């Protein structure tokens, strides 16, 4: 085929939702995925759940999660740095997403336990992100969507505000592909360390990238250079604390650590630097990547004791273990006296005595420290003692392209493109100016992906 109705860039959740929606509306659809087939899907491969509004419990959700509550959570984690009208639209459309995405072959399971606290708000994919992704591919290809792997869009031809064609690099060289409409759903640029340095400086050399090495943002640059309006900056991203022993790329979900609330977090000087009990895990876990990034050498250590070892989901790597705090410090290359002083000061400041409950703020706190722990404070006193070394793990970046309520790209001059749309990480900065809450990335991808596909099909019609 020499010209397609809809050309989709990307191979993850957002791209597949767009492709399926457009194909169901009768369009010819070509999906170009930069990665090889095994690595298709970008971050979708590593996801577990998505956050959608719903008014009642379901077979896999324990209770209602209204659109108003969803919006309150979003405003809290972003500090109000969001396009509120666009976010409310997304949340309103998320009500239908749980049914729609199951119609595309995706299946859900009951929420996991541990420290997640997501049983009411988030739907977990049966088999995880790869199973979810495979289901979308089966549906898309069954409908007649054409997928080409190892095809990278390196340039776009835009006349006025209209997309005309894309320049594509692949194993056989380079080609030009025309389409009536174009949907960018190609992820962020988190694997481009030099680009990260534009926002973070040399600290970015110590960052670990949770997803594949293929998300380098080449399409994002091409679109912005061609006159599409940029949103966000290079320092804003979804960053969590992950095991420092993880590989540079593609460590995925199993390298994340969910045990902050069970102990204390210290930097290389054995000093605490933030309140470990600020809020429950789903709303506050994503602050720790940025916090660790601000510490010397971008390294920190989560320290806890024996009674807490089995209270959270384990990481891929075992914790560092010792029979004393001094011994633990030695294994972590920390000053033993400094770590012992920090732990002693923390233990002496613990007050409260209420039953420990990790699912909600329990009021067990410290009192009198320069940085108090405001919930879940327990004395660290029962050997053996444990620690996990952590570094910033970058999930995806927020610098991308601006869109309107129809998922259409907005040009630098303020005009709205007639036939260019965006979904997923490449436009996530419209919703996430900063911060993160569990599952929102998949919501952005699915809602705006479906919307982009429907709007592209309407334009073709």
From TrEMBL:
Enzyme class, first EC level, given as a word: oxidoreductase
Any Pfam family: FAD_binding_2
Domain FAD-dependent oxidoreductase 2 FAD-binding: 5-433
Species, as recorded: Roseovarius halotolerans
Single GO MF descriptor: oxidoreductase activity
Enzyme Commission number(s) from the entry: 1.3.5.4
Cofactor annotation: FAD
InterPro entries: CobZ, FAD-dep_OxRdtase_2_FAD-bd, FAD-oxidoreductase_2, FAD/NAD-bd_sf, Succ_DH/fumarate_Rdtase_cat_sf
Keyword Cell membrane: no
Keyword Oxidoreductase: yes
Protein name listed in UniProt: Fumarate reductase flavoprotein subunit
Record keywords: FAD, Flavoprotein, Oxidoreductase
């Amino acid at each position: 085929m020499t010209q397609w109705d809809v050309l989709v860039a990307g191979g993850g959740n957002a791209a597949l939702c767009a492709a399926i929606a457009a194909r169901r509306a009768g369009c010819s659809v070509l999906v170009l995925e930069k990665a090889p087939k095994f690595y298709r899907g970008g971050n979708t491969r590593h996801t577990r759940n998505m956050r959608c509004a719903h008014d009642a419990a379901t077979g896999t959700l324990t209770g209602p999660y209204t659109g108003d509550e969803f919006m309150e959570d979003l405003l809290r984690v972003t500090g109000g740095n969001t396009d509120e009208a666009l976010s409310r639209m997304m949340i309103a459309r998320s009500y239908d997403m749980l049914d729609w995405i199951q119609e595309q072959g995706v299946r859900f399971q009951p929420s996991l336990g541990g420290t997640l606290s997501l049983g009411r708000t988030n739907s977990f994919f049966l088999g995880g992100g790869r199973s979810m992704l495979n289901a979308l591919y089966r549906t898309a290809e069954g409908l007649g969507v054409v997928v080409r792997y190892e095809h990278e869009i390196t340039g776009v031809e835009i006349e006025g505000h209209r997309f005309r064609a894309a320049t594509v690099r692949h194993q056989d060289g380079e080609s030009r592909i025309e389409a009536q409409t174009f949907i960018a759903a190609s992820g962020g640029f988190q694997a481009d360390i030099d680009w990260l340095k534009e926002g973070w400086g040399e600290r970015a050399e110590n960052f670990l990238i949770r997803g594949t090495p293929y998300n380098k943002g080449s399409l994002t640059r091409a679109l912005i250079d061609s006159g599409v309006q940029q949103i966000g900056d290079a320092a804003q991203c979804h960053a969590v604390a992950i095991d420092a022993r993880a590989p540079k790329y593609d460590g995925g979900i199993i390298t994340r650590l969910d045990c902050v609330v069970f102990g204390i977090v210290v930097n290389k000087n054995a000093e605490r630097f933030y309140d470990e009990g600020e809020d429950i895990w789903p709303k506050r876990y994503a602050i720790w990547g940025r916090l660790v990034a601000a510490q010397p050498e971008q390294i920190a250590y989560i320290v806890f004791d024996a009674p807490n070892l089995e209270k959270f989901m384990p990481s891929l790597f075992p914790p560092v273990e010792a029979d004393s705090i001094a011994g633990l410090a030695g294994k972590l290359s920390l000053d033993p006296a400094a770590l012992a002083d920090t732990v002693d000061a923390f233990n002496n400041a613990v007050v409260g005595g209420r039953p420990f409950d990790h699912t909600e703020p329990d009021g067990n706190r410290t009192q009198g420290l320069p940085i108090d722990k405001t919930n879940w404070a327990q004395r660290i006193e029962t050997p053996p003692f444990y620690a996990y070394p952590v570094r910033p793990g970058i999930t995806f970046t927020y610098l991308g392209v601006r869109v309107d309520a129809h998922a259409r790209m907005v040009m630098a001059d303020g005009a709205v493109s007639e036939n260019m749309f965006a979904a997923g990480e490449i436009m996530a900065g419209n919703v996430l100016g900063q911060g993160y809450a569990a599952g929102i990335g998949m919501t952005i991808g699915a809602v705006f992906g479906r919307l982009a596909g429907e709007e592209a099909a309407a334009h073709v019609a």
